[in-house]
Each structure stands twice: as C-alpha cells, then as structure tokens.
Give the backbone structure.
Amino acid sequence: MNSDQLDKLRIQSSDRRRPWGGIFAIFAAVILLTGVALFFAWPRDSDGRRTFGKTRAAATNSTASATTAPAQNTNGLLFTVSGYIINRERIELSPRFLGVVKWIGVKKGDAVTNGQVVVLLDDAEQKARLAEAESRVASARVTVSKTELDYERIRKLIAANIESKQNEDDFRLRVESAKASLKEADAHLELNKTYHDWTVIRSPINGVVMEKLAVAGALVTPQSFGGTRGPSTAVLAVADPKDLQVEIDLNEEYVGKVYLQQPCRVSPEAYPKKIYTGYVAEMAPEANRQKGTLQIKVQIRDPDQFLKPELSAKVDFLAKP
C-alpha cells in the first residue's frame, strides 16, 4: 500500500473532536428539570392553594377541618368525655316492719308531691294493738282516780285521828304508782299509734315514680333475708326529675384539669343539638385502681323533659372564665 492510500485512511485531527454542544444541552435540560422538581417539592404555606381543578377544593376542606380545634379552644373547651345521666337522689320507699301491701295509689311515671299517700299496708294487727293500748290507758286512768279518792278519805280519817300517819303514806304511794302506770300506758298507746301510722307510706319529696317494686297483696319487709325469692324490701322508687347529674368515670390523665364548680356543657347523645349548662358538683375521694379512673358528677342546670336518667351524654369541660 502506497503513501497516498495511507493518507486517505488516516483520521484527521479535526474529526477527532467530540460534539460538546449536544452534551451541554443535555446537562442544561437535566438541571432545569431538577430545579422545577425542587420548586414543587419544597414545602411552603401556599401549598394548599397550589392545586388544580377539584384537588384545590379538597385541600381547602382539609385546611378548614384542621382549624376546627383552635376554634374550640377559643371557646374555653379543655376536653370532652361521655357519661350517664342519673338522678342526684333516688329514694326507695320501704316499710318499717313486715307487712302486706293493701293498696298502691300510683304507677310508674306518675308525679307525686311531698306528703302524698302512695301506699297503704294491711293495718288489721296495728288497729287491734291500738285498741288494746287505748283500753290500758282507760284502765290506768280509772286506777288513778280510785287511788286519789282513797287517799282523800284516809287524809280525812287521819285528821279525825281515826287512822295512823303510816296509812296516809301508803295511800300516797299508791296514787304515785297509779300515775306512773298511766304514763306507761300513754307511752304504749303512742307507740302503737306510731306503728299504725307506719302502715301509711307517703312520698318524702316532690318528684316522679321511677319504679314500682311491689303490687297489692305482696309481702314486704324492711330488710332482705337473702336470695331472690324472699320478700320485697321496697315498694316504690321516687326521684326529682329536675335534679339530674351526669356520672363520669374520668381517666387519670384528665383529673388534673378538673375542679369543683368548674363550668361544663352537657349534650345528651339522643339529642345532640340540645345543650345544657352545668358544673362539677362532686369528685370522689378515691380513684378506682382497676379502671384507673376517678368518678365525677356534673350537676345539670335547668333540665327538661328531654333528659332521662340512664341515657348517655357528652360533657365538655371548660376553662375557668
């Protein structure tokens, strides 16, 4: 092969240079895309508005829900818990002695007034004892009258020197003994009157009959003898529907935020739009170790017919105004 042919096959030095312009264009494009990606990825306050179409509306709603908690805090809300509505005082009317129900004049849900007769017990035995006590009193009065007459006679005989002074003392002591027996008979009569009065059971408060626990003809007693087949220990349960509380088992983590007379808002689960004001009325002196809770009672101000005992309710505990 001659030198001319070798020259034709040899690569010129100018042809060996790479096309740097295309490489620079690729690097510039990569840098530009990286910058755009960083721009959109970098977090900022206006991210909620940097959306398109329907996504923007969703972001707006998310922002609104996130600001709900601060809005409640401005109203003084500390935390919310649930509990059960109860009567502050529920009174079960029981007899004072073993007896049989003769008549019940009310039913569940009836309104009662203080002193109203609601139950009558069979009083046949008490009437007999009362009659016996009255006869004893009458007999004791006769005895007193007789001994007083005897004493007056003996005094006249002593004045006439017919009887001795010792007889006067004997008759005077007889008079005092008769009077003491009369007092005893009077006390026995009053006791039997009390027993007879106990056969009439009256409501101790203005309220509503919460439960009817016995019926006419049932045997009732002031104490239970054990078992489920024994006599009933109560006849009626009454309570004041205008004196209601919410009973709460409060978790330990909230105990430090609660104090007596603390203002609260109460809303029954059955009527969530009904809001009642209240305050912390009771705090138990000891906690429940097993549950890790402390019992709290919130008094409800001005309850109405929508609030029923044993319904659940939510209670908002508020900060001190």
Notes: The first strand starts at residue 77 and ends at 87. The chain has three domains: 1-74, 76-88+241-318, 124-196.
